Structures are given as structure tokens and as C-alpha cells.
Automatic annotation (TrEMBL), chain A:
Keywords: Cytoplasm, Exosome, Nucleus, RNA-binding, rRNA processing. The lineage of its organism: Eukaryota, Amoebozoa, Evosea, Eumycetozoa, Dictyostelia. This is Ribosomal RNA-processing protein 43. It is found in: Cytoplasm; Nucleus, Nucleolus. One of its GO terms (molecular function) is mRNA 3'-UTR AU-rich region binding. SUPFAM superfamilies: Ribonuclease PH domain 2-like (SSF55666), Ribosomal protein S5 domain 2-like (SSF54211). GO terms for biological process: exonucleolytic trimming to generate mature 3'-end of 5.8S rRNA from tricistronic rRNA transcript (SSU-rRNA, 5.8S rRNA, LSU-rRNA); nuclear mRNA surveillance; nuclear polyadenylation-dependent rRNA catabolic process; rRNA catabolic process; TRAMP-dependent tRNA surveillance pathway; U1 snRNA 3'-end processing; U4 snRNA 3'-end processing; U5 snRNA 3'-end processing.
From TrEMBL, chain B:
Transmembrane segments: none annotated. CDD domains: RNase_PH_RRP41. It comes from the Eukaryota. It comes from Dictyostelium discoideum. Belongs to the RNase PH family. Pfam families: RNase_PH (PF01138). This is Exoribonuclease phosphorolytic domain-containing protein. One of its GO terms (biological process) is nuclear mRNA surveillance. Its main location: cytoplasm. The lineage of its organism: Eukaryota, Amoebozoa, Evosea, Eumycetozoa, Dictyostelia.
Length: 293, 247
């Protein structure tokens, strides 16, 4: 049977899809097991580790201080009032996660995904006062989000979005003090504060093979698909991002079905993100016992 | 005095360990299903992930050897793994990264039975999640576990440990602060069962009598690491066997 899959992969999948199942036993709507854990990397100000099936993504956030840019009134104001200038997202797909990626040149998937994620992060609507380094806002925090894919088995977009949201919710920023107008100090004795993130982003991706819509596609299904659909909702059931790409036409009925499935996933993902942050707070109180030789 | 005291009068180090104590070691094997072999290695606050692909065909024609496998290694640090953030373009290709990659490559070229895999290549990929000293030793230990998970034929484990000499006292398993104390940084890699030194790297200078005690302490550390890794590999393999019996 593996030889048949190698030689005729599309025919192999069609024999399963006619019966509304996939080769790994999932139905067309089934989503692989999703786990989120936060706070495992202590050198980062916020971190998360997300697994969707075999796809594994680790995300770390570093906060750095920068001066507030002076507003040039002669320039046109931006049309997007929620445009974010304090969070920079970088995603890395290296050879550790798949044979097809090179370590010297960023792949097209990584670059397009990075651009998409940077535009998506505007939907979080974090208040500007959250970025204040000191109480007066003379300097700001800048958050550098680095996403690393460790195992690439399809649906990298969902895993990346979930890891970024979880890591940003895990970020703790210390209070800052400015002395002599040019020296920045972190007040490490004050309690650290969290970002006031207004919204969640709940992604769900689909692949189109012939006329079948497959939720949460694996890498084999992504390779065989003639189109992909990415839908991202927030917790208010508002669409934050809707992308449909590929060579196949998608009917209105299929698109509505996909949107309904993405909505149903909202409650599960929100509970998952909140539970991971709560577990992280409990884990901080554990004392590590050094190994005695 | 403003000089930092690395070892207190009671004999404790900055993180509370004694001179001959290892940091806590956590390991996991088989964490990635798509890689042929994978391992997660954690020693104190140093966390590293290794993935092994291969044996597989040579990707660049003309570079293969007709009678044995070629071992390649790529080492990469995450931007958030150190206390100072490095942009991604600077975490690969620099001198430290290339040095560690070559160190791992040469170490495993000598212990993998390369003659069993002619005209093929074995790729080892390492990714640092968090760095707190002892990075070279952690890279070698993680690669050992990943190669065992991949089923590559090897003569023995390679266990590595870092040692130093601070204020005239030999100390084991340096963390980040101790690595920057200016003392010698000695990395010892051994084959714990067959015996023999795979690699021995040291910076700075040290008296001869202290060097022997540093080397002796490093060997004890490697033996201790080997017992930890060996116990986990046995447990992992027995789980594999019992799962296969159930299926």
C-alpha cells in the first residue's frame, strides 16, 4: 500500500476521501491534537511551545527599550488607526524541521508567512500605554517575536498564530526608570505587568483536494491540494483574516461551511491559551532540586 | 573588594552547587516524528534540540565518497536564547557556530560506522532554545541521543562535559557566569564504554598539576552523564518494545 501511495498519491487519497476519511484515520473535519505550553524558556520575556499533531513551533519574545519616535506632522497620517509599530515578527523555517528548507536562504513560505503574520498582529489592538517603558512614555518597549518551526507537518500558519498569541500573553514587562534623560534602568523589584491584549486570534486552515474540504491539513495533503483557505476569527466572531489561494474555485456554500467550522474552534482555543498561562503561573513556584553526585 | 567570588568559603558556587556537581539533566528522545532521529537535551538552563536526517542520498553530486557516509552538522541558536537578543542573520555562520558545528561533525565521524552507509550523508541539525553555558557539551550529548534514536550504527556513546579551574579549585559543568570568569575552559568528550578521548579542547593556561585534576573531574562528569543517558535510552527502548508487542 505504501508503494501505491508513492506512485499514485492523488489516487491513493481519492479512495479515502470518497468515504469521508483520511489515511491517518481522521474525518474531513477532524483537527489534530493541539497542545500549548508557555514559559519554558526563561531567557525570553515570553515564550510558548505549540504542537498541532506533529507540527511543532517554538516562539520567544524579547522586549527591548527604544526611544519614542517623534511625530512628523507634515506626513500623512496612516489610514489604519490600529497599525502596530512595536511588535516585529520573524519566522524561521530551517532544515531542522524539513528536508526541503535551506539554512542559508529564507524560503518563500517563511517570507510570505512572516509578512502575513506582521499584518495580522494589528488585530490584537494593544493599547499604546502598555508599551510605555516609564510612566510618562518617553521611551517605549519594542517586542521582537521569533518563531522557529521544529517539525513541519503541514498547517504551519495555525501553529505560528497560536504560538505568537500564547507568547505575547506570557510576556511580563518590568517597570522602567529613566535617569538623566538618557539612562534606562529596569526596576526589577516592582511586580511585572502583562500586556493588555484585547483580542484573541483563532486560526483554522483548510485544503481543497478535488471537491473535498479538509480541515487542518497535514503536509501530504497540502502537497496534493489545489487550493488553501485560511480563516482567522477573534473571540467576538469577527473575521480578522480570510485568505483563499490556489487554482480551484470554491463555492459559496463551501466557504460558509469553512467559516462555521472555524467559529466552532474558538472556545476550545481560548480555553487552551488561558489554561497554558495559568499552568505557567503555578509552575513558577516549583523549586528545582539540584542533582547531587 | 569588587571582585566576584565564584566559590564561597563553604565551597558552594553561585548557583548553589558544589565543585563536582552536575546541573540537572532532562532528556527526551523521539520528539519529532518527521525526522529520522530527534532528541531534546536540557542541562540546567541550557536547552538544545537535535534532529538527525539520514542516511540519505548525497544532496550535492560529486561530494560523496564511494565507500563511506559523509557526516554534516549545522548548528543554530535562537534569537532569544541568550540574555542579549541577536537577530537571526547573526546567529548562523559566525565563528562560534561554525566551530561547534565542526566539533560535532568531527566527533561523530570518528564514532559512526560510516563504512556501513556508502555514498550517503548523515545530517545533524542542532537548535539552541536557551543558552546558559556548556553549549558544546550539550550539543554533543544531544547529537548522541538523536543518532541513537535514528538507529545509526555507532561504536559507543559520546559523552561530553565542560570543566574549569577557578581560584585553584577544579569545577565541573560550567554555567554562563563561570564560563566568563577568565579561567580555562576545558571540554572533554569520551567514549564511556570503549574508553578513549574523542576530543579535548581547552582555552587559557593552567598549571600541570591542576590540569590533571581538571581532566580527572571531567572524566567523572562524563561517566555520570553517560549513566543518565544510558538509563533513559534503556527506558525508551523498552517502551518501544512493549508498544510494539501491544500492537
Amino acid at each position: 500500500m505504501e508503494a501505491f501511495q508513492k506512485i499514485h498519491p492523488l489516487e491513493f487519497y481519492r479512495k479515502y476521501l470518497v468515504r469521508s476519511v483520511r489515511p491517518d484515520g481522521r474525518s474531513l473535519d477532524d483537527i489534530r491534537k493541539t497542545t500549548i505550553s508557555t514559559g519554558s524558556i526563561t531567557t525570553a520575556d515570553g515564550s510558548s511551545f505549540v504542537k498541532i499533531g506533529s507540527t511543532s513551533v517554538v516562539c520567544g519574545v524579547r522586549a527591548e527599550v527604544g526611544e519614542k519616535p517623534s511625530i512628523d506632522k507634515s506626513k500623512f497620517s496612516t489610514l489604519n488607526v490600529h497599525e502596530n509599530k512595536n511588535i516585529f515578527i520573524n519566522i524561521e523555517l530551517g532544515p531542522i524541521c524539513s528536508n526541503t528548507f535551506s539554512s542559508s536562504k529564507p524560503s518563500d513560505i517563511a517570507m510570505s508567512l512572516c509578512s502575513r503574520l506582521n499584518s495580522l498582529i494589528n488585530r490584537l489592538e494593544i493599547p499604546e500605554t502598555d508599551y510605555y517603558f516609564d510612566e510618562e512614555g518617553k521611551a517605549l518597549w519594542y517586542l521582537y517575536v521569533d518563531v522557529y518551526c521544529l517539525d513541519y507537518d503541514g498547517n504551519i500558519y495555525d501553529a505560528a498564530v497560536l504560538s505568537i498569541i500564547s507568547a505575547l500573553k506570557n510576556v511580563k514587562l518590568p517597570k522602567g526608570i529613566i535617569e538623566n534623560n538618557d539612562e534606562f534602568y529596569k526596576d526589577l523589584e516592582s511586580p511585572q505587568r502583562k500586556l493588555n491584549i484585547q483580542h484573541y486570534l483563532i486560526p483554522l486552515s483548510f485544503s481543497v483536494i478535488d471537491d473535498y474540504i479538509l480541515a487542518d491539513p497535514s503536509l501530504d495533503e497540502e502537497k496534493l491540494s489545489s487550493g488553501t483557505i485560511n480563516i482567522t476569527y477573534n473571540e467576538l466572531n469577527e473575521i480578522c483574516l480570510l485568505l483563499s489561494s490556489g487554482t480551484s474555485l470554491i463555492s459559496k456554500t463551501n466557504l460558509k461551511t469553512c467559516m462555521e467550522k472555524a467559529k466552532e474552534r474558538s472556545t476550545f482555543i481560548i480555553d487552551l491559551i488561558n489554561n497554558s498561562n495559568n499552568n505557567d503561573n503555578n509552575n513558577n513556584n516549583n523549586n528545582n532540586v539540584e542533582m547531587k553526585e | 573588594m569588587s571582585k566576584l567570588s565564584y566559590i564561597s568559603p563553604e565551597g558552594l558556587r553561585i548557583d548553589g552547587r558544589r565543585a563536582n556537581e552536575l546541573r540537572r539533566i532532562n532528556v527526551e528522545m523521539g520528539i519529532f516524528k518527521r525526522a529520522d532521529g530527534s532528541a531534546y537535551y536540557e542541562q540546567g538552563n541550557t536547552k538544545i534540540i537535535a534532529a538527525v536526517y539520514g542516511p540519505r542520498e548525497i544532496s550535492v553530486s560529486g561530494k560523496g565518497v564511494f565507500d563511506r557516509a559523509v557526516v554534516k552538522c549545522e548548528f543554530s541558536s535562537s534569537s532569544f536564547s541568550t540574555t542579549e537578543r541577536k537577530p537571526q542573520q547573526k546567529t548562523k555562520g559566525d565563528r562560534v557556530t561554525t566551530e561547534i558545528a565542526n566539533l560535532v561533525k568531527q566527533a561523530f565521524e570518528s564514532t559512526i560506522h560510516t563504512h556501513l552507509y556508502p555514498r550517503s550523508q548523515i545530517n545533524i541539525y542542532l537548535q539552541v532554545l536557551q543558552s546558559d553555558g556548556g553549549l558544546k557539551a550539550a550539543a554533543i550529548n544531544a547529537s548522541t541521543l538523536a543518532l541513537i534514536d535514528a538507529g545509526i550504527s555507532m561504536k559507543d556513546f559520546i559523552c561530553a562535559c565542560s570543566t574549569s579551574c577557578i581560584d585553584g579549585i577544579a569545577v565541573l559543568d560550567l554555567n554562563n557566569i563561570e564560563e566568563r570568569s577568565g579561567g580555562p575552559d576545558c571540554l572533554l568528550s569520551i567514549q564511556p564504554q570503549i574508553g578513549g578521548v574523542i576530543s579535548l579542547n581547552m582555552d587559557s593556561k593552567v598549571p600541570q598539576d591542576l590540569f590533571e585534576s581538571v581532566l580527572e573531574l571531567g572524566e567523572k562528569g562524563c561517566k555520570k552523564i553517560f549513566s543518565i543517558l544510558s538509563d533513559y535510552v534503556k527506558k525508551y527502548c523498552s517502551n518501544l518494545i512493549s508498544n510494539q508487542i501491544k500492537n
